[in-house]
Amino acid sequence: MTDKLTALLSRWTMLVPALAFLLLAVVWGRSLDAVAAAVAGLALVGAVLAAVHHAEVVAHRVGEPLGSLVLAVAVTVIEVALIVTLMADNGAKNATLARDTVFAAVMITCNGIVGLCLLVGALRSRVAVFNPEGTGAALATVATLATLSLVLPTFTTSTPGPRFSTTQLTFASLAAVVLYGLFVTTQTVRHRDYFLPPDLGGGPMESEPAEAPGDDGQHAERPSARAAVASLGLLLLALVAVVGLAKTVSPNIESALTSAGLPASVMGVVIALLVLLPETIAAVRAAKRDQVQIGLNLALGSAMASIGMTIPAVALASIWLSGPLVLGLDATHLVLLALTVAVGTLTVIPGRATPLQGGVHLSVLAGYVILAVSP
Q1: Residue 98 has what pLDDT?
Q2: Which of 72, 142, 298, 317 could make an SS bond with 305 (beta carbons 3.0 to 4.6 A apart)?
Q3: What pLDDT shows up at residue 215?
């Protein structure tokens, strides 16, 4: 049964990128009615799921912790492409889209995915155990990137509004790239053992590499180089389909949000939920296998990649995009970010967590969602 399911999943993830690309060729440049938009939306979701599946295959090939990094970068590439594409359509209207999407990604990863991993891991083993050295370093990097990119614009005075001047935006972008690069080097080269699941004694596991996010927990065979190359090609095809379909259905989504009386910032939440759904599934699956560290790597790595890649990419795109680029958070979001960092710090320090910590993180996410829908 398992072999049949694996074969079916493999065929599905091979067909969906091609079908989504063909659908994109049919609907490109056209205004869609409700039915066509729904079909395109389903194809968009399928393409995202397929893209992350193929990223997982590549991640399994390269192993941990580089595998978690590959998956996080793949998801963030989708996010960056969606933001830049939508901002190019209507820069003035979508001036806060990058900020809203990045902050939504931070809240979803640092509270939603982290909370689910801790809750699942603690319910399974009474106490969820992870390495505080690596997890703490990741959280500190996320907090620094979020502060430099999303908090400081609220308080700067060189440019009217919660915006950076050109000099400040250049600094924030360079800082994001440098910090992200330093973290990647730390995670994959110099202190790789800090990001591997701990053994029963609480120390870093050095004898075996951890399973990739896509494993089923039974030490699945490592994909061949040929399979990894094929997945890489299908991943690129799926990414093209995702970006094109998102551009096509975005007017319908915006119209639906307006009709429902929801704030424009909800679009950022929709994008973040879309691109992070498959990664959430992968992280929870890792937690079910008592690999809570892998789930935390995925969560915090995605938050870091979201800031470290999105802000520089949007800053570069702002050279030719029309309209302002608003990055500064409002007072409500500043409070939520401060609470997230404080709670995350207290969770990480012991290197162990009970279901209570998972519930606390999930409650912070719930508060964010409620305030996003009803400011």
Answers
A1: 87
A2: 72
A3: 41
